[in-house]
Design goal:
The chain is mostly beta strands. It has a single domain (2-217), classed as Mitochondrial biogenesis AIM24 (Double-stranded beta-helix). It has 4 helices and 15 strands. Strands 3, 5, 6, 8, 9, 10, 11, 12, 13, 14 and 15 form an 11-stranded antiparallel sheet that branches. It has a 4-stranded antiparallel sheet with strand order 1-2-7-4, with no helix packed on it. A hairpin with a 6-residue loop joins β1 (2-6) and β2. The longest helix has 9 residues, at 52-60.
Length: 227
């Protein structure tokens, strides 16, 4: 399976090239176009398997209830994108586990297991959901971001503003802290709560914050007129 990205990093789409017999699992609604040689199966978990509880937890993590599985009968191409403009990146998993924040999963191959993990009340305080996706196994996965996506190799401590986290290796832990020397300075500086990562592993960040972008647009939106 091959992934080719176009229009990076602002309006990225991905062309997935599948050989005969290969299957790509993608978020419901992410398909732009596809070859007629692809068979599509929709399920709540893996192709040919049911996972109602897993799909319900996935909804709490901000993902879709259903997953689409595209299987090629001959060499085929599948185009995928996301609802908002931004970047995409490919992650290669080799038996390790990746924690993915709400809305950042796009697609993966059959070797990846998609589950949902509890991140505790600290995730809610950081502006994220209680549940985050957990990708494990061996294979390739596609993540998306709002704005550009970039990688950080953490070895020790690293601080990220909340809302800019895309994903991180399971070997990294995070705690919430204030950005300034006091909580008052943190709020006056516009940062508030930040996430402090510790450990050794890879961290994926996004250049823009979708929630902050929505708040910035709100004052400029015309009020709804009732008839």
């Amino acid at each position: 399976m091959q992934f080719d990205f176009i229009h990076k990093p602002c309006n990225t789409a991905v062309k997935v090239i599948l050989q005969a017999g290969e299957t790509c699992t993608a978020e419901a609604g992410s398909m732009i176009a596809m070859d007629s040689h692809l068979d599509v199966e929709t399920s709540t978990y893996k192709r040919g398997k049911r996972g109602l509880l897993k799909s319900l937890k996935r909804m709490f993590a901000g993902e879709s209830f259903f997953l689409n599985h595209y299987t090629a009968n001959a060499e085929s191409e599948l185009w995928l994108s996301t609802p908002h403009p931004g970047d995409m990146t490919k992650v290669d998993l080799q038996g390790d586990k990746l924690i993915v924040q709400s809305g950042s999963f796009v697609a993966c191959d059959e070797g990846i297991d998609i589950d949902t993990g509890w991140q505790g009340f600290k995730a809610l305080l950081s502006g994220e959901s209680f549940f985050w996706l957990s990708l494990s196994g061996s294979g390739q996965a596609i993540l998306n971001s709002f704005g550009a996506i970039y990688e950080v190799d953490v070895d020790g401590e690293y601080i990220v503003d909340t809302g800019h986290i895309v994903a991180f290796d399971e070997g990294l832990s995070f705690s919430l802290s204030k950005a300034g020397s006091s909580w008052i300075q943190s709020w006056l500086g516009g940062e508030g709560i930040i996430c402090k990562f510790k450990g050794k592993g890879k961290l994926y960040c996004q250049s823009h914050n979708l929630t902050a972008f929505g708040r910035s647009l709100t004052p400029h939106l015309a009020p709804k007129v009732r008839n």
